[in-house]
Amino acid sequence: MRRNESLLDLFLELQTLDRVPRTGYVLRGVSEPESVTEHSWHVLFLVWALGARIDGLDVAHAVELALVHDLAELRIGDLPRTVARYFPDGAKQAAEAAALAEILHPLPATAPALYEEYRTGATPEARLVKACDKLQLMIKVAVYEGWGSRGLAEFWGNPDNFPDGSFAPVRELFEELRRRRAAAVPAPEAGESV
Amino acid sequence: MRRNESLLDLFLELQTLDRVPRTGYVLRGVSEPESVTEHSWHVLFLVWALGARIDGLDVAHAVELALVHDLAELRIGDLPRTVARYFPDGAKQAAEAAALAEILHPLPATAPALYEEYRTGATPEARLVKACDKLQLMIKVAVYEGWGSRGLAEFWGNPDNFPDGSFAPVRELFEELRRRRAAAVPAPEAGESV
Amino acid sequence: MRRNESLLDLFLELQTLDRVPRTGYVLRGVSEPESVTEHSWHVLFLVWALGARIDGLDVAHAVELALVHDLAELRIGDLPRTVARYFPDGAKQAAEAAALAEILHPLPATAPALYEEYRTGATPEARLVKACDKLQLMIKVAVYEGWGSRGLAEFWGNPDNFPDGSFAPVRELFEELRRRRAAAVPAPEAGESV
Amino acid sequence: MRRNESLLDLFLELQTLDRVPRTGYVLRGVSEPESVTEHSWHVLFLVWALGARIDGLDVAHAVELALVHDLAELRIGDLPRTVARYFPDGAKQAAEAAALAEILHPLPATAPALYEEYRTGATPEARLVKACDKLQLMIKVAVYEGWGSRGLAEFWGNPDNFPDGSFAPVRELFEELRRRRAAAVPAPEAGESV
Amino acid sequence: MRRNESLLDLFLELQTLDRVPRTGYVLRGVSEPESVTEHSWHVLFLVWALGARIDGLDVAHAVELALVHDLAELRIGDLPRTVARYFPDGAKQAAEAAALAEILHPLPATAPALYEEYRTGATPEARLVKACDKLQLMIKVAVYEGWGSRGLAEFWGNPDNFPDGSFAPVRELFEELRRRRAAAVPAPEAGESV
Amino acid sequence: MRRNESLLDLFLELQTLDRVPRTGYVLRGVSEPESVTEHSWHVLFLVWALGARIDGLDVAHAVELALVHDLAELRIGDLPRTVARYFPDGAKQAAEAAALAEILHPLPATAPALYEEYRTGATPEARLVKACDKLQLMIKVAVYEGWGSRGLAEFWGNPDNFPDGSFAPVRELFEELRRRRAAAVPAPEAGESV
Question: Is B93 within 8 Å of B119 (Cβ atoms)?
């Protein structure tokens, strides 16, 4: 796969994003886990619904950032988090930027710039998308636990998974989620796997 | 399930949209078919990418319409098209509106209005979302055929599945898709199933 | 899809019932859930095995009712229970009757009458099929919980899911099932999901 | 697993039949293939619908035979046909009878007798169930081919898979199925796999 | 399927081993269970890693035994353990030997001899493969329990599933596994299914 | 995930390799594609069966190389081939070596050396494993095409996928495979996807 030369090539390739499962769930035994496409939709919905509650935030712009934030996974896959240990600093981000430029080539030049803005967290909109990316992760983890998954407890023990608390609506939702989960799961946050 | 009373209830319920498969594919033997969430994301991306090429269109508004256009399927399911033969006129639309109002209750009152605008096709933005809804269907059908599905030929024979041609970028993409498919599939549009 | 005009059309269409999953399980995160075909077979077996223990019941006739009781789902889907909130009274039943008449058209006129008898619960045989429809639901819920599903507790809290107790063999089985489940599941009937 | 001692044990065990896929499809790469439960339901429906067209046949009795005909697969699995080459004559049948007696123990003594009648083909009803067992196989093969499976051509080349033609309604349906398939599949009955 | 006459036939047939799921997991509701191929790889890895810690053991030879030990399942299926109750003594083993001879025909005559050595447990290498076959079973059971399966408790209650303790590295690993599982699972070894 | 400190940690982690699907198939719409574990087993079997036909080759050593050759995918994933375009030269190989060292830490120091030997192709045994890695790919592609996949034609058009022809038994098998496929598939090597 090279640079997409037509819009149709781009749209056809995007359909395969549905077949890229979120690796963190796969490796912890979740059946029929969320695809990257599904994750992206939920992040986008969160950004839209919560962005409206944040003063001065450009919601339409944040939605655009959310639309492109995970597309590089089409060509790089949804890398497990451990990958960061094994690649040189910045290699993954550089690869994502390069892949994205080839994928989105038929779109106007603003598309890669959106990714860059997201990656660097340069604006409040970018930071909101990042926060919603994590909030969605923890919401889904809670849903899978409610359905019977027992291999996800470690997510609650690692603050790297928690959304940055600088946006009040995000912070409040996450706190409510943690409270509910603590009430629902017998031994919250204990590692219960072998 | 009743009216969602908190944002968290809404976000938790939305996660289950990933488990609602698109019925048209299921009944034609497509394995691991697209979920409603995945369909929604692809429609949204099309609206965003193509809307920018249409003079005078409010892309951010069209994106919002796309975000809510299929959410009622959370509680009603993705009804097979044949359902229209068996329910009284308008019953499905009324049910969708009622379900949507309960699902989206924690959001501002504009959300059901977005759905109403979409349903009635009252604006160019609503009509673009409807056109992209069908364009995405036919793109996905082509992808599934390219992967080996043989039960989808009838989609190409029924103009009800085709996007309304009043937006040039949509029309041109769909024509290019039909040309490519005709070149790729030996006996295009022939019914080849038993 | 229209009226089936030949027996072969009917038998071919029926095969797709295997791809219609039971929506109640799908939306609660059960993996690889029962299809409508599977549900139908189990109801039928219950009717046959339990009907023989009920004085004066015409088992062969009850078996026929069980055979047709869910076929409309071929064209309408397995609607989530919430649908009842959103459609006018009786709309779903009328739609099912209309769909069934078209599906079963190649069979003698008795087939739709069987569905009508089932739907109205006009005979002891129809009431037994309805009771076994619910008994099978609760047996399957118990099996899925035994396999690890944690999202099904609400079924045990809603008496609408329980089989009507007027047939002693059904009632006794259901009571035994509840006792076993209460002994097996730590906090029976508590809502444990987030 | 031993002898089922209660009806509830029996009904609980039967639910697992949904997880036993039909091996012939699995080994030829059919995705999400029919379960034994689904096969059983379809055979039963064929017996009921076609039995009514055969003079003098006891349909209710034939339906009972169909209900029990595959239950031994709960404990023995759906053995691939090649197994017959490797076990002594009659070993599989004896094993099925022994398994069935233990599975169905809570039912009256007639249940194993039904299986014996089926196995030996001692009555027209038993022969009709056997014929429908094969007719259903070939109908499903045609459906899977219509959906895209290319690994099933050999089924059409082996008359052992064809239903015995002594019942006119079965014979006519099968001939119609073959005609349609020959018209639909470019190179019928040619082995097209590597 | 008959005797493989060429190496390519053999290699093509072997690919289908990926579609044969391990029946013990299927019947206990594990989603997406291990295939026979996967089981074989893990046994092989255990044999290689542990064999090196056993004085005087011929690791390369043990690895060869592990490579062929489950291949008969290609044609016989992964029979549920209950099968032993229903077939005459030795029938399964004789069938496996016959199937294996036909599958492996293109290989030198040593291949069936490897299976025979494994089956009879005639050498320390064969006994190590048998021990690792069971150790892998219990490791996988623990992994599935850690992911949420609740239907596997009975495995821990039946010493037939435990690896023979005559090899110290196997025994020590299994004891460590049991200790960890007892610490992780609230009520170890209690039957918690309905 | 860090350095495995005990053999049990290693064996538990290895079980998750079954959930890592081979990305090349996933992105081309193959349903239930081969896992990395399954791929590894088949490569290993090829190495064992073909190595015995190559003069002077140390088969036991080649088998060991095959055992470790893909384990880094546990922590890095099965990266799509396009990744090579986006990462700096050698970054993927360095990451694999680092991941492997942490995964295999409880094993003797020879394990990472085996991977290094494989990676660099320093010995005939390493080159045979590499050749079998590709031969297995093309065998599986042919099997999936035989089952109905239509999205894999491009594999036959890219010689990078073909096994190096310096080992006669590998070369001959691959040539036989190509001949059979050309005879089986109507328009061999033509790109038939949209």
Answer: yes
Which run of H or E residues covers position A181? Answer: helix A168-184
Q: Which residues of A touch F1 (CB under 8 A)?
A: 82
Whole-angstrom CA distances from E109 to E103, E112, E124 are 12, 6, 22
Which chain C residue's Cα is nearest to A182? Answer: C194
User: Which residues are CB-neighbours of A76 under 8 A, at least 6 positions away?
Assistant: A92, A95, A96, A99, F79, F80, F82, F83, F86
Could you tell me which residues are beta bridge partners of residue B110? none
- Cα–Cα dist C167/D136, whole Å: 35
- B in contact with E (at least 3 C-beta pairs within 8 A): no
Burial class (CB in 10 A: 0-12, 13-18, 19+), C97: middle
Q: What is the pTM of this model?
A: 0.95
Q: Do chains C and F touch (3 or more CB pairs under 8 A)?
A: no
The pLDDT tens digits for B51-110 are: 999 999 999 999 999 999 899 999 998 888 878 889 988 888 899 999 999 999 999 878
Q: Per residue in C52-94, pLDDT tens?
A: 999 999 999 999 999 999 999 999 988 888 788 899 888 888 9
Q: Does E87 touch chain F (CB under 8 A)?
A: no
| Cβ-based contacts under 8 A for chains A and C | 37
Which of E15, E139, E177 comes nearest F143 by C-beta?
E15
Amino acid at F102: E
**194 residues of chain D, pLDDT tens digit each:** 689 999 999 999 999 999 999 999 999 999 999 999 999 999 999 999 999 999 999 999 999 999 998 999 999 988 888 788 899 888 888 999 999 999 999 998 788 899 999 999 999 999 999 999 999 999 999 999 999 999 999 999 999 999 999 999 999 999 999 999 998 865 434 445 56
Rg of chain E's alpha carbons, rounded to an integer?
A: 17
* Residue with the two structure tokens 């501002």: B108
Residues of C in contact with A146 (CB under 8 A): 29, 150-151, 192-194
Q: What are phi and psi of B4, to 5 degrees?
A: -65, 130
Contacting residues of A for B49, CB less than 8 Å apart: 7, 10-11, 107
- DSSP class per residue in E154-186: HHHT-GGGSPPTTSHHHHHHHHHHHHHHHHHSS
Evaluate the CA torsion angle C30, C31, C37, C40 in order and state its sign.
negative
Give F-chain residues touching E184 at CB under 8 angstroms. Answer: none
- Hey, is the C-beta of D82 within 8 angstroms of any chain E C-beta? yes
Cα separation, E181 vs C11, in Å, equals 50
Q: Would you say C51 and C59 are in contact if contact means Cβ atoms under 8 Å apart?
A: yes
In the block, residue with structure tokens 């080759």: F57
The answer for residues whose C-beta is within 8 angstroms of residue E95's C-beta and 6 or more apart is D83, D86, D87, E72, E76
Q: How far apart are CA F74 and CA A26, in angstroms?
A: 11
- The answer to whether residue D193 neighbours chain B at the CB level (below 8 Å) is no
Q: How far is F60 from chain A (nearest CA, A)?
A: 30
Q: Tell me if D82 and E99 make a contact (CB, 8 A cut-off).
A: yes
Residue E188 has pLDDT above 70, yes or no: no
F68-112, pLDDT tens digit by residue?
989 999 999 888 887 888 998 888 889 999 999 999 999 987 888
ipTM over 0.85: yes
For an interface test with D, give the residue of C45, C135, C174 to mutate (most D CBs within 10 A): C45
Parts of chain A with a pLDDT under 70: 1, 185-194
CA distance E32 to chain C (A): 9
> Chain B within 8 Å of C10 (Cβ-Cβ)?
no
Non-local CB neighbours of F51 within 8 Å, separated by 6+ positions: F57, F59, F62, F63, F125, F128
CB-CB under 8 Å, D12 with E19:
no
Mean pLDDT over the full length of chain E: 92
